[in-house]
Amino acid sequence: MFAVCGDVRITLFEVRRGLDFQALAACEIILGSVTYAPMHSLTDTNLNATPVHFPYLREVYGHILLGYSSAHSFHSMFPRLAILHGRELYHGYSLIIMDNFLLDDLGFISLISIRRGNVMVARNAQLCYAESLHWNEIFEDKNSQIISRQNRENCAFCPTCPSACWSPSQCQKHCSTHCKGNCYSETICCPEQCVGGCYYNNNLHNQTATLTCNACRNMRIYETGECVQQCPQTMLKVNSGTLFFLVFSFF
Length: 251
Prior knowledge:
- By secondary structure, the protein is mostly beta strands.
- It has two domains: 4-174, Receptor L-domain (24 nucleotide stem-loop, u2 snrnp hairpin iv. U2 a', Chain A); 179-249, no CATH class.
- The protein has helices spanning 12-17, 21-25, 45-48, 135-138, and strands at 4-5, 8-11, 29-30, 34-37, 59-60, 64-67, 83-84, 93-98, 113-114, 118-122, 146-149, 165-167, 170-171, 194-203, 208-216, 219-221, 227-228, 235-239, 245-249.
């Protein structure tokens, strides 16, 4: 089963009021949007000591806004984030990264698909490598744009990657042209019912590894995680969000 969460807001106000960081860390799918704007947290040492991580999060249905933080990278926060659906945009943007004054690199090493919306990366004085990325390989909508301005200008070229990188040691994942935004690696495409790539999931019952979708093109069987094109006759389709379906057996 998948841990499904709604909107996530992490600001100075919410943190001081009390957030359940353990519950947030369990999120695998966020049906809403993510706002992370802790206002640097420099005046409160307790906030600096509170790590915010989404170690299992693979898909977000709305947008992500990351700003006014003292993060050096978002790698540890979103290590598995693979797809942004952009069903709910912030002034036309599905990803906004602004005013993170210590941010060195983006670190979204698993992100391979933004289905809708533009990207804004601005006023991160120490940020490098954002302009090296091949955003056109991530955008599903050909009309989507990347706006990058007032970040660090004197960055070295990606030191360990042939071209595009998320950080000095983390290269951008490339999919082959016939499975753009939906691959496990450059040579292995994911099943057709997947969007945003896939991963190998070890099956403890038969001790085999199978490719599991990060997100589904149509609907997902909730108990197994399998993506299907249409609802099986023995199951009931439940709409939970614009694109996400939970499917339960009624026998």
